[in-house]
């Protein structure tokens, strides 16, 4: 019984992680196409990324949009989260579920709906439309992080600040913000990754001259057999691993997906 | 949560003046809260709620080809879907592929969750990290690894031919098995985390009691642990099923034109053929079918195991 359980657990973990190992392995190949196990060892497919402007542009596009999406999500999410946590707003549960409702609609349907909606508004295929779509998918996470961060917040601290004569802005800046900073930071990083990794919503929002890195990989995987897909994918894995390590230190990766999803 | 927000005029208030002032304060706090909530509420309304309603409205407009002039209100789009064998086959394939993905995720996921529940806190932490981390890596990248493994004459084919199970390359890529493997791989973490959460909540003394009165570990598992973990199992199944139903990227990469699941059809109708009203109708059919099947499934389970689902 125990033996079977441990065996299946190991098989399951291999099943889960093997695509990442294979991708990184294949990126070191010397052959002109990605293979696993790799033929020989070289870093040529990493060096050659620099000669491929489409990957470089896509990378900078991804970082730019993910940064902006994370910034606006956290800004909007923190303001709303503070209001929800601090005041007894009537219908609070309803408001929270309304604000996090984009999580319940599949990205495919959301992307399609926004494309149809944005076209008459002349936002389709525009950077603004792209950014708005990404904020829609990121902002529910930002609210959740802020609400979680504020759930144990001691409001007597704010009152103490006020009694001592600080105005509301000073109270926020010196007391509230430092306490919820880890939650905001985790929310921002999570929003960044959600936007950075997104393919489905982006597919409906891009024009040919504005692609993000996962999209570039998606199209190259479909079109051709390009060894660069392995090395670029590996770089995406390395970047994600850095985020995972930071998350694990400040928040706990398991908690990100635990609870009500 | 108690209202302890800062308000300058409350500081000086004396006992008998408190009552009328308080009323004003409540109103002002409410206004302040609404003012803070307004930007995000408006944003979500304008760019999520309204688009979703607009698309629902569009789904009831029938357009001949791309000519908008002879558009009319009808349920024609829905009728077209449910009378055309191509779309019905696509719906059936979507359900089939999702059910297979759920089964694989359940078979692999339950033992992992059980191992997590039975491990020390430290090991549990490492396992959680290993299981949850892939969720933070783009699905394109995760699918690419499977793509390399499943490619004709790739590692899996060579391994299976090497040990003599098959004598010609299996067509794993661009077929249903490829899509199922890709989906199960993508959503396995959700299954594991859902089941693990409900396993953590089981009172360990129940399992101890079962073994004290002489039940074998296997019997204890089937009469105590498994029934008590059912809420997590149902939650995991619901999550993996609904995510598989609406997954576009994995079927596109691993199945291509050979596995035309509904998300592929929706993408094609909207982004390639520009049949927006019909695409909108299929989107809502996908949402509806997913919601109905998930509801029926969890109702049946909840009714059958009333004691476990509170």
TrEMBL record, chain A:
One of its GO terms (biological process) is transmembrane transport. Its main location: membrane. Residues 59-247 form the ABC transmembrane type-1 domain. The keyword Iron does not apply. The chain crosses the membrane at residues 7-28, 65-85, 94-118, 130-150, 183-207, 227-247. One of its GO terms (cellular component) is plasma membrane. The keyword Iron does not apply. It is found in: Cell inner membrane; Cell membrane. It is a multi-pass membrane protein. Keywords: Cell inner membrane, Cell membrane, Membrane, Transmembrane, Transmembrane helix, Transport. It comes from the Bacteria. CDD domains: TM_PBP2. Belongs to the binding-protein-dependent transport system permease family. This is ABC transporter permease. It comes from Neobacillus rhizophilus.
Automatic annotation (TrEMBL), chain B:
The chain crosses the membrane at residues 30-57, 91-113, 125-141, 172-200, 220-241, 273-297. It is a multi-pass membrane protein. Residues 91-297 form the ABC transmembrane type-1 domain. InterPro entries: MetI-like (IPR000515), MetI-like_sf (IPR035906). One of its GO terms (cellular component) is plasma membrane. GO terms for biological process: transmembrane transport. Pfam families: BPD_transp_1. It comes from the Bacteria. CDD domains: TM_PBP2. Its main location: membrane. The keyword DNA-binding does not apply. PROSITE patterns: ABC_TM1 (PS50928). Keywords: Cell membrane, Membrane, Transmembrane, Transmembrane helix, Transport. Gene3D superfamilies: MetI-like. It is found in: Cell membrane. Belongs to the binding-protein-dependent transport system permease family. CysTW subfamily. This is ABC transporter permease. It comes from Neobacillus rhizophilus.
